Amino acid sequence: PPSDVFSALRLHLPVSARARGRLPCLAVCPCACDSVCPPGRSSDFLTAYRSVCLRAPLPQVPLTTSPSLFRRCLHFLLLCFQVQVLAAEENVDFRIHVENQTRARDDVSRKQLRLYQLYSRTSGKHIQVLGRRISARGEDGDKYAQLLVETDTFGSQVRIKGKETEFYLCMNRKGKLVGKPDGTSKECVFIEKVLENNYTALMSARYSGWYVGFTKKGRPRKGPKTRENQQDVHFMKRYPKGQTELQKPFKYTTVTKRSRRIRPTHPG
Prior knowledge:
Elements: H1 2-10, H2 15-20, H3 43-53, H4 67-89, H5 94-103, E1 113-120, E2 126-130, E3 133-138, E4 147-151, E5 157-162, E6 168-171, E7 177-180, E8 190-194, E9 200-204, E10 213-214, E11 220-221, E12 235-238
Region (Disordered): 218-244
Family: Belongs to the heparin-binding growth factors family.
Protein name: Fibroblast growth factor
């Protein structure tokens, strides 16, 4: 069995190799069942290999060719190959896998809708979706400044739609902010980033490094000219006047501890 092979091999490995938890399978000679090992190979490992493959005493090993011997040697080499593959997979960065999964679209889970305004730090106004035209000149409570934000995945990817016009905020390949009636394109998906100063930045999911930004006059800035540390791309979420959060808060219920009921004892 594989467990017997591993236990037999580890008894003959150096301490450094055993500490790393990896088997130096490359030490096996090409002439695996030969009595002579070329220079530069591990004699200890070859000795352990012979004891496992041939199942013979260590001092003297009768080297005979038989079908059962060939199967044992082949099984051992295949086992070493599997160990090398597993050792190579140990260096895989799991964070890359998580990042790729968070950027993938989630078409199964229920979408979460939020209604709020985005206050621009530079213009002092709110983002407006005026059909195909985008600006940051909306007053607090303006109907064109009310945005429906839909979560696209659990990785902070959102789609922003104007409540009044039902146009989506998008960024085309030139980096220009435009409004589109159909928001299924990846150009209409943005990644929310909460900065250290508690402001929010919106980076395009299609064009990495391009952010939603506005000038002091409320005009859109092109994506290639924006950076995360610029005040032009800093926004603050604000609810419209007289409106609270749409989501209902969690309600905690108190549960009284039930006492164990004592059965009455009947005299025998």
